[in-house]
Amino acid sequence: MTKNSEVNEQTPKEDSPILSSQIVGEGRSDAVSHHFMGNAVSHEQGKLTIDFGDIQESLVVLVDDSVILGRGAQENPIEVSVDLKPYGASEKGVSRRHARLHRTTTIIYVTDLKSLNGTFLNNERLLPHQARILRDGDEVRLGNLAFHIHLH
Predict the structure, then answer these.
(1) How far apart are CA 152 and CA 150, in angstroms?
(2) Pairing mode, if any, of strands 66-70 and 82-83?
(3) Could you tell me the sign of the dihedral formed by the alpha carbons of 4, 5, 9, 13, in that order?
(4) Is the CB of residue 88 less than 8 Å from the CB of residue 79?
């Protein structure tokens, strides 16, 4: 039987960063370990590419401070910073104000804005209003609209 102190020494705390050396050999799947090991630093001051693989299109976004992703409405087009309507947002369950991207100096975060159909990061549903770090290659899904993030 393992002592609690031994388990706590090997298990990262909620607020401590998870290092790749902490997850190697723990039996996690490649999909989960990739999420923790991907590069989270944006070298070009918040520039990222949203890659819609299924429709062979991409969109470059500059996350100056905060960017709202959603589907624009004709009556209030400035409600979102990035209108995903041209990429099938309406048909795929994207809310008008679905998610927010924001950054600190070099780290970009995604936050669900209490959307109806949810925001998913690498197939894990995000809790509303709780920011999660984006890493290069992460898959984000807003409702049923999936895309990959590539940091610059």
Answers:
(1) 7
(2) parallel
(3) positive
(4) no
Hey, is 82 helix, strand or coil? strand
Q: What is the pTM of this model?
A: 0.73
Closest alpha carbon to 49 in 125, 95, 108: 108
Could you tell me how far CA 40 lies from the centroid of its own chain?
11
Condensed to tens digits (0 to 9), the pLDDT of residues 35-45 reads 455 788 887 77
Mark residue 45 as left, alpha or beta (left: phi above 0; alpha: psi -120 to 50; beta: remaining): left
- Give me 48's structure tokens: 């990222």
What is residue 77's predicted lDDT score, i.e. its pLDDT? Answer: 62
φ/ψ of residue 131, rounded to 5: -70, 140
